[in-house]
Amino acid sequence: MAASDGASPTRALPLARPHLPQAGPYTLHTLLGSGGFGAVYVGSVAGGPRVAVKVLTFEGHGARERFSAEARLLHQLDGRGFPSYITGDLTAARPWFAMELLEGITIDEAVRHAGPMSAPTVAAVALDLARSLHRLHGLGFVHRDVKPANAVLAGRHATLIDVGIAKGERGLDLTSTGEMIGSAAWAAPERLLGDRATAASDVYGLGLLVAYASAGQRPFPSGDDARTVAAVVDGQLDLTGVPDALRDVVVAMTALDPDERADMAQAAAALADLARGEARTDEAPRSRAKPRPVPRPEPEPAPAPVPAPTRIPVPPSPTRAVTAPTAPVPAPKPPVPAGAEEAVQRLAGNPRLAASLRAAHERGYDRAAVAIVARAQRRSHRRAVKALDPARVKATVWRGHGWYDDQHADRRRFADTDEGWAKERALVRRGWWLDKAAGFTAMLGILLVVVAGAGERGAGARAPFGWLDSLLPFVAVRDGRGLAWDLLALLVAVGVLLVLGVRWSREGRVARGVGAPQSIRIGPGLLAAAYAVVGVATVLTILGILT
What we know:
Elements: E1 22-23, E2 26-34, E3 38-44, E4 51-56, H1 63-77, E5 85-89, E6 96-99, E7 105-106, H2 107-114, H3 119-138, E8 141-142, E9 151-154, E10 157-160, E11 167-168, H4 189-192, H5 199-215, H6 226-233, H7 244-253, H8 264-282, H9 340-348, H10 351-362, H11 368-379, H12 383-386, H13 390-401, H14 418-452, H15 459-462, H16 467-471, E12 476-478, E13 481-482, H17 485-512, H18 523-542
Antiparallel strand pairs: 1-2, 2-3, 3-4, 4-6, 5-6, 7-9, 8-11, 9-10, 12-13
Helix pairs in contact: 3-5, 3-8, 5-7, 7-8, 9-13, 10-11, 11-13, 11-14, 14-17, 14-18, 17-18
InterPro entries: Kinase-like_dom_sf (IPR011009), Prot_kinase_dom (IPR000719), Protein_kinase_ATP_BS (IPR017441)
Pfam family, one: Pkinase
GO molecular function, one term: ATP binding
């Protein structure tokens, strides 16, 4: 799958190709995503804003042509519902182009962190995406991978990414021929049956996105196995949790037969009505005049191809991607509280919170981290901190450290919830105490052996086993000295005690798991030392040196 254009910075990874530190005037920093023939990095110029820079990384047949076609498509879209094209050099030895870096989170991340959205909010966001897709269709292209992970939220607006997988209805394909785009859970049924993607396929994907964002769960099972494919092809859509206001729209957009689905204009009109309902609820009373209907947009003729840009000067700042509305939808953004950025940085920089978030991330509890931030907000006395969105603070921390969700999912032992994280912490504490108990047992064993081997001064430690010397026969060792049965019995008792300590240490290691917090473990080292001391003392006792 192609690299995500303007991908969410919460997915930032370490720079994958350090031998490519520059792309034109831009210095490359972190990798946002990579795919079949391109990789997207965070880039910047001295004194300028950060941008997303896509670099051609695969020199296969037709790769340069597809890469150039993607740049031209972004240029034609002009930032209306898609990342804005800034500059590029498509004739360089390593072609590249720069586009707007979207500062926000995807719909998928927003739902997983904060739960389902309200029906009017989903309608307003989906309306943005519908208008963006209509512009893409007007240029003769089909997106083919409309899903929550490819829609970035910034405030109350949504922007589509990943135009590198678009396919032209006139034959121009920005991906390799025959490549399956996306996962089966988000694909239109006709795509899984081998038919080509059309505008109706994007309508279907948008319908699934609306269902997921409003219900908080996938309409189909996740994965690409036969069960998922069968559910999609048979139309076994799970709309549990979808509000009644959106259910009819989703059903109309996800009909099995592409010819029976609502077209994009009809879907946009229905979504616009729901979005206006939100505006009437949130704002002051309006006139009772009937709002203007959303006209069905006429398909625009495909513009003439734009020549590949070569070494366009870098502008002072990237243009913001704004979706131009086809009809007025009064839904203003909520005001950002004063000092919000300072409050985010203050909370994200709290050492105690930072340690807790690092521990949660390194054990795979990325979604539980939102609840950790919320608890820290409740403890704060600052109003600006209490008013923050916990998911936003969590995303800021993840972006700052280059972390991404499910990076350590294999370490997680419970559900990625606050309750699961509480169970994980309880196990870690149990493992800590078991480790310390094992270490204390080892120290006690070493002390008993040392004291018992110190001649007459060790008689107190060996006293409980003195009856063995009178019961067992005298065995001469050397210089008229006999085998110290009481000392040997003490060594055996200490050995049994150490076996118990080893068991505690193993249980503690399993309970502690992998990842932070990892305090100093004293049990294994002390137990090894104790076994060495017991072994040496046993040999010396048999040789008659210790009596």
